[in-house]
Specification:
globular, two-stranded antiparallel ribbon, 6 helices, about 5% strand, about 60% helix, about 170 residues
């Protein structure tokens, strides 16, 4: 059973946090391209944190969890290509509301805690034999399983990382 805290995904995230830690607070909060660097990172953290809460609640009622449809696999496969063509989706309001101040170090620590919680959820999913079921409802893709959830997290983070790199290139 693979844990997210032991994954390349987390190693890359930690490395990226380290690489941007030398940016000034003004640079991290620069909103000239829309969201600031800190807002992009906070959004990604918030998506994972809220997903954890949803999944934790959903697995309390395993009988309500359905199988993943073929259409969902197809949508999951197509999503990265559609985004590369320039499609944009408006983030749900709950994941696009930011505190007035975001501390990079505190955000990093909170994200680590969120990933620890997700690792605990992974253990529960396997214990309940739900890892292949559609326990998480993505607003565009539909009900997704563990593999597709991890794939979404990876895609989503890397998408925002590219947007952050565009901001950095203009600073």
């Amino acid at each position: 059973m693979k844990k997210i805290l032991d994954s390349k995904f987390e190693i890359d995230r930690l490395s990226y946090f380290k690489s941007i830690s030398n940016l000034s607070l003004d640079d991290l909060n620069n909103k000239s391209c829309g969201w600031s660097i800190l807002q992009h990172l906070y959004h990604c953290f918030l998506v994972e944190s809220l997903a954890n809460q949803y999944i934790a609640k959903k697995i309390l009622y395993p009988e309500t969890i359905k199988n993943v449809s073929l259409l969902t696999y197809f949508k999951s496969f197509l999503t990265p290509f559609v985004w590369k063509l320039g499609y944009k989706a408006k983030a749900p309001k709950i994941t696009a509301t930011f505190p007035n101040e975001i501390d990079l170090d505190k955000l990093n620590l909170n994200w680590i805690e969120t990933r620890k919680c997700f690792d605990e959820l992974i253990t529960k999913l396997y214990y309940l034999n739900l890892e292949k079921k559609g326990f998480f409802r993505h607003p565009i893709i539909g009900r997704i399983n563990l593999k597709l959830t991890l794939s979404f997290y990876d895609f989503h983070y890397n998408h925002h990382k590219l947007l952050i790199e565009k901001i950095i290139s203009k600073i």
